[in-house]
């Protein structure tokens, strides 16, 4: 019997705006192979309460900047997290912000990004379970920039260096009984080959799913 926890990975195979799930799904499945089974889907109805409750963590790589998840799907995800579910949002998964309720839960919104470039990442919360044992690293990435909500009690875990100074690149907080992590890197499949970033994804998933 498989005693691993269960992760749901949501993204877009058929109509992504910029970031397809193809290839990324295999990388994330490999990252969690020893700790969690990963079910990959583009079906937004997996967010409905009756479908999502069977998972320990939802990993969002949705690339739906034009659309919106439905009110029922939004309610399902809000209920899931507030009742103890984990949510890990990677890169473009922040497109969930099209629903203002989900934007509030995430704690920040994407604004824009300068061109893809080599970025230096530094850890700003060394004692957090998501970043424990992780050192600063460099990788090529889209330098997403964000605006944080005034009500979110969030902990910035990573920053990257920009011409304007350091910018947030990852954060984590609790929402009701649940746990949320956002990781900014993840533009395309090569992003997931970086060993330090793979470790960061693994630790984010384990913290959100309450392994630690």
From TrEMBL:
Alphabetized InterPro entries for the sequence: Class_I_gatase-like (IPR029062), ThuA-like (IPR029010)
Pfam families from the UniProt entry: ThuA
Protein origin, superkingdom: Bacteria
Domain annotation ThuA-like: ranges: 34-208
Signal sequence extent: none
Protein name, entry field: ThuA domain-containing protein
Protein source organism: Paenibacillus taichungensis
């Amino acid at each position: 019997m498989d005693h691993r926890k269960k992760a749901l990975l949501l993204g877009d195979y058929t109509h992504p705006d910029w970031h397809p799930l193809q290839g990324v799904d295999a990388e994330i499945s490999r990252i969690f192979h020893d700790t969690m089974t990963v079910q990959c889907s583009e079906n937004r109805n997996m967010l409905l309460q009756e479908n999502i409750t069977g998972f320990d963590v939802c990993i969002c790589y949705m690339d739906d900047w034009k659309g919106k998840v439905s009110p029922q799907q939004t309610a399902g995800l809000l209920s899931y997290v507030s009742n103890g579910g984990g949510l890990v949002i990677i890169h473009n998964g922040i497109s969930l912000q099209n629903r203002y309720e989900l934007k509030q839960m995430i704690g920040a919104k994407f604004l824009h990004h300068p061109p893809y470039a080599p970025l230096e990442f530094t850890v700003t919360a060394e004692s957090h379970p998501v970043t424990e044992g992780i050192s600063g690293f460099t990788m090529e990435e889209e330098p997403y920039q964000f605006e944080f909500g005034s009500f979110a009690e969030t902990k910035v875990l990573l920053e990257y260096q920009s011409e304007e100074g350091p910018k947030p690149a990852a954060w984590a907080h609790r929402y009701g009984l649940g746990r949320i992590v956002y990781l900014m890197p993840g533009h395309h499949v090569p992003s997931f080959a970086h060993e330090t970033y793979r470790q960061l994804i693994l630790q984010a998933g384990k913290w959100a799913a309450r392994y630690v």
